[in-house]
Specification:
alpha/beta; Rossmann fold; seven-stranded parallel β-sheet; about 325 residues; homodimer; 3 domains; Single alpha-helices involved in coiled-coils or other helix-helix interfaces
Amino acid sequence: METGTGTLARKVAQGDRRALAQAITLIESGRPDHRARAEDLLARLAPVAAGRQVLRLGLSGAPGVGKSSLVEALGLHLLGQGLRVAVLAVDPSSQRSGGSLLGDKTRMERLSRAPGAFVRPSPAGAQPGGVARRSREALILCEAAGFDVVLLETVGVGQSETGAADMVDVFALLIAPAGGDELQGVKRGIMERADLTLVTKADGELLAPARTTRGDYAAALRLLRPRAEDPPGYPLALAVSAREGTGIAAAWERIAALAAWRRDNGIAAGMREDQARAAFRAEVTAAFLARLAADPALAERMAALEAEVAAGRLLPGAAAARLVAAVMTGVGA
Amino acid sequence: METGTGTLARKVAQGDRRALAQAITLIESGRPDHRARAEDLLARLAPVAAGRQVLRLGLSGAPGVGKSSLVEALGLHLLGQGLRVAVLAVDPSSQRSGGSLLGDKTRMERLSRAPGAFVRPSPAGAQPGGVARRSREALILCEAAGFDVVLLETVGVGQSETGAADMVDVFALLIAPAGGDELQGVKRGIMERADLTLVTKADGELLAPARTTRGDYAAALRLLRPRAEDPPGYPLALAVSAREGTGIAAAWERIAALAAWRRDNGIAAGMREDQARAAFRAEVTAAFLARLAADPALAERMAALEAEVAAGRLLPGAAAARLVAAVMTGVGA
């Protein structure tokens, strides 16, 4: 943290991976003085990132689905195509379990060692909103650093996977092979967001179950409404094997084709803009609520009103009007 | 609108259907003086509603799925069981098309005429947040009026159906029969919320397709994660016919069983509390944003910041912090 933000920004923009790692550590820090430096750094690098053309690919799945193996296999495939790849692996469970970050990094050892690649496991922290903000900021840093593709890997726990879907160009859901009637750990809302469903571990004894699962998801996807702005054939389900490398090239082909289609039809830029606007609105309400929480008198007032609402003694709209009137006239300030 | 709110509240609490209709008209009015009376009325009736035990059932589906016919058939079935039934039919398209409200009412003619029933079609209005608030308020009025079951019928357009899911005890998704590969107009996110999927029009030539569709949805539902707090067997898919009355009793049995299970296991009360808290938070941010929009200087500031964010020149978090700082220190007041 000794480097000035101007120097750090220049090094990141030059593609210096150590500087990038240092910059991400800075934005992840909770210290107020670090936060001020992070904001300064981001203000310098956001225009650089905006000038690059980077494909942001989100990959989400439940623990044990084989995310890291697939991400490494895909990353190595992309390197083989001459593309520079950054991986941001967000693990919401890491704060609790403590151990899986190092494990993830070790599992991506080959990719981590490759000169054109950058692998960064990140603890997700306690606040879902905090995860979203830090991931958005880390994406910008990776873009500024000149990578062609950024893989945002998230564990499908709670709301984090739909958060990831809101900040990428293409979003893939990872599913493990299972018997036809076996329950899968897929959160229902996430299927809404997935451009691709990738059935992992399609090798050896799991090849046949993987094919069945792929067929089941393909059928389920046909029952759902396709997005009006997508080309025919999407969303789709594919079977892949990280171990044997099968299906990886085909999956990438479909991902790149979708991204190119969205770019060529003016959809990609619109998606990014919509994502930025939505993020701004979410940040506005988050900042407003954070200010409320930081003011003891207002926080107490809000908690009391919420308790009245929960007990059915006060209606949500009437309670909200009282609170906001108090805030905007500075009663609690 | 001549009646005083005290008298009106008393009549609604006594189950007077004319007074209930008048009260709903009052909460739907956009006039500020009506709004003040509506707030007063709701403040009087919320405690009455809180003291009743009412099953709120949400039914959503795309236009043409046969919602009104099914709601009427279900309503008549409930009357036959000795239950008093209120129907709130929210139609987001009514403001545009203008004609469907009367049509709906006519289609539920038998139910409308029954002494134990109340049928109220409502235009959804322009604001999605406004729909949610008015529906919540109309539900409270119906509860205060002593109905045993309130059916909240919403058209599956945009966000309104998930809004409905956030204010009922049991939520059913209605689907029309279709060939196995035919695309259905189901928004994916809504499957997340449905306790039951009801395949309508399971009669005559559509009986076989309805059975196929039911099987397809049952299979799709098995791929999704069941809710931890639900009894085994839910969510489920059933085929029903409003014309022949088949499946209606079975569907109600499963709905009532789920509601009873949630009540007996302390889940129903928690759901209502969570819904109230979530509604309060949504209302707080809505009220905050409404205040922003109502202040020309702040609205202009927000639009300018959002444009900067959309163009990639400013990060969402930094822009939001600037806006909220301006608001909370009264710069724009």
